[in-house]
Structures are given as C-alpha cells and as structure tokens.
Design goal:
two-stranded antiparallel ribbon; single chain; 189 residues; 4 helices; alpha+beta; 21% helix; 5-stranded mixed β-sheet
C-alpha cells in the first residue's frame, strides 16, 4: 500500500511541476505562509511548526499523498518529518500543495513527535486551505480562506494545541473521501 501511495503522490508532483523550481523551497513556502493572514500571525507566536514545502497528492478511487518537511522550534530546525496519507472515496486527479502545522506549546510539539502521530479522518486541528473557496473546520473550529499562493488570506485558531494551513500550488483534485495523515519525526537538524 505504501508503494501505491508513493506512486500516486509522485504522479501528482509530476503533473503539477509546471512551476519553476526555486533555490530554497522551504524559504519560498514560508514566505507564502507569511503572506496568508492568520498563518503569518501564528508564525510569530507559535512555539514550533512543521513545514512541508510540497506535498503531492493523487487518486483515482483510492488515493494517497506524500511529502517531506522540517520541524522548527523557536525558528531553529530540530528534525525532519514525512507525511503519508491514504484516502478512499470518490476522487480523481492530482495536486501539489504546501502545508504548515503550528504547535501552540511544548506539549503539542511532543504529541507530534511521538512515533506514528496521525491526524484521523476527522483531523484534530483547524485546517485552512488557501486557493479554494471552501473552508474546513473540525470539531467546531472554523476558518475562512481566499486567494491563491501569491495572495492567500486565512483565519484560524488552534484546536488541541495545533493548527494546520495548506496552500494549493497546482493541479486539480476532485474528491469526496475519507483520509488520514500520518507523520514520522526524526530528530536532528
């Protein structure tokens, strides 16, 4: 199953690679989140964050996503992380997006660092997607978003010490699916 997820995510990345590569994808992704309303404010106040410059997502009925990122505590890299996601339901297409997960305090960061941390299908965090007209909130958290990766705006709050923001980079993904994101964390800079 993991190879299938990686293949689908790789296809999504290839399908959305029309934008030119930049010298430092982390700096570029961070700059985009700095321009996106509430995520800019959270960058200044969050205890820590995990940044994924590009996550590839794809699916035809069964789908998956994959991305690599870095974890920062007080602005310094403390480790690397990977994201994998499997989804089942109506879905067709491929997409690439950037994602940032903010940690409100040390306890939220420790929760993320534990082996096999997962956001379930009901994602225990506020998820804000810039570049889409829809918004997503979980368990009562609410958010709004508009624009694209150049002029994204967003508003959101922490839920259980975490908040997740995504900015669509390219591609088209049509889906009505159940998905969960699973993370690994490896300490070290």
């Amino acid at each position: 199953m993991r190879h299938f997820i990686l293949a689908l995510a790789g296809a999504a990345l290839l399908g959305t690679a029309a934008t030119p590569a930049h010298a430092d994808s982390y700096s570029n992704a961070l700059a985009n989140f700095r321009k996106a309303g509430a995520s800019a404010k959270m960058l200044d106040t969050a205890y820590a964050y995990a940044l994924f410059p590009t996550i590839g997502k794809g699916g035809i009925g069964i789908g998956g996503a994959y991305g690599k990122g870095r974890v920062y505590e007080h602005g310094k890299v403390i480790g690397t992380t990977t994201l994998t996601q499997a989804s089942v339901g109506f879905q067709l297409g491929g997409q690439a997006y950037s994602q940032i997960i903010f940690f409100q305090d040390a306890n939220a960061l420790k929760e993320f660092e534990r082996e096999g941390f997962e956001f379930g299908a009901d994602a225990s965090a506020a998820v804000i997607t810039a570049g889409a007209t829809a918004t997503a909130g979980t368990k009562g958290a609410s958010a709004s978003a508009s624009g694209d990766q150049k002029d994204a705006t967003s508003a959101g709050t922490y839920y259980k010490g975490m908040a997740v923001f995504t900015i669509i980079k390219g591609g088209a993904m049509y889906e009505l699916s159940v998905a969960g994101q699973k993370f690994t964390f490896k300490p070290g800079g």
